[in-house]
From TrEMBL:
InterPro entries: Ureohydrolase, Ureohydrolase_dom_sf
GO molecular function: arginase activity; manganese ion binding
Xref: Pfam families: Arginase (PF00491)
The protein's name in its UniProt record: Arginase/deacetylase
Organism: Myriangium duriaei CBS 260.36
Amino acid sequence: MVAKLVNIVNVSSDIGSIYAGKSKAPAAFKSAGLQDKLRAIGYQVEEQDAFQQSPAEWVSSTREPNGARNEARTVEACHQVSKTIASALDGADRLPFQLILAGECLYCPAIMSAYWHHLSSTSKRVGIIYVDADCDLHTPTEPGSSGTIAGMTLTHLTLDFARGALESMSALSRPDGTGVVDKDNIVLFGLNTDSEANKRDHLGYLFDNEFRVFTSRSVQRDPIGRAKAALSWLEERVDHIIVHLDVDVIDPGQFPLCNVPNWTGLGFEETMAAVKIFLKSDKAVALSVAEVNPDHDPRLKMTESLVDKIVDALS
């Protein structure tokens, strides 16, 4: 029997962060036994580092001319991630399962773009389940914007230039140049509508453009039911699914592993029960884990718990 392959992509990055620390996440996952535990359940494990040449480390930043912080360095880091994902896909007879320890959610457009380009010769569609407390619809020049590109992830997934998407992110697209997501290939799961980070006009944009949204409150009430509903909706529309887990979706009063806390009211067990439903789908081809800051977990107890839940979901 040939062992199933999982390709781990280490994205040691703080480049788009308000605070440093997330770049340590891939090493923390390894210390918590991720690779060994995957091998123990029968996986062949391969690893790639996205930043072998130039690191994506935190630096003191000011706004660049377009209103974003560290724009040039961040966009270059996104291209490195996209190339790393693409190299694993191009050398495989069929899509390997990729476990992307992404550090920051801003790499979602890069990940999605790699898949869209890989599938360009087919009629296959790729979608994403965006498990995140934030909708990440900020723009560089809106009032109160911090200028951090991580807060603009959905803006760049859609490449909505009318809203203020950066032109420098335009290459991280589908082969036809359009955004890697639209209302029909993304589910926002665990959105905290009480958070001030999700502005009224951001929520209005989701409503007006008919995006599929499951709030953190609804997931907490019925994590299995909401996960099955979200998955069923997306499976009807796409051929392959990327699951993106931003750990800020988990309430920090119970599990403060995320880089910046978001008081969602959503528990760790409930979140991971939903993620397990997603990863059991035959269409799931990747899991991206973002916003883990090991500085908040010096003995790696929370990281070990997260690793165990991921391994269980993949067993």
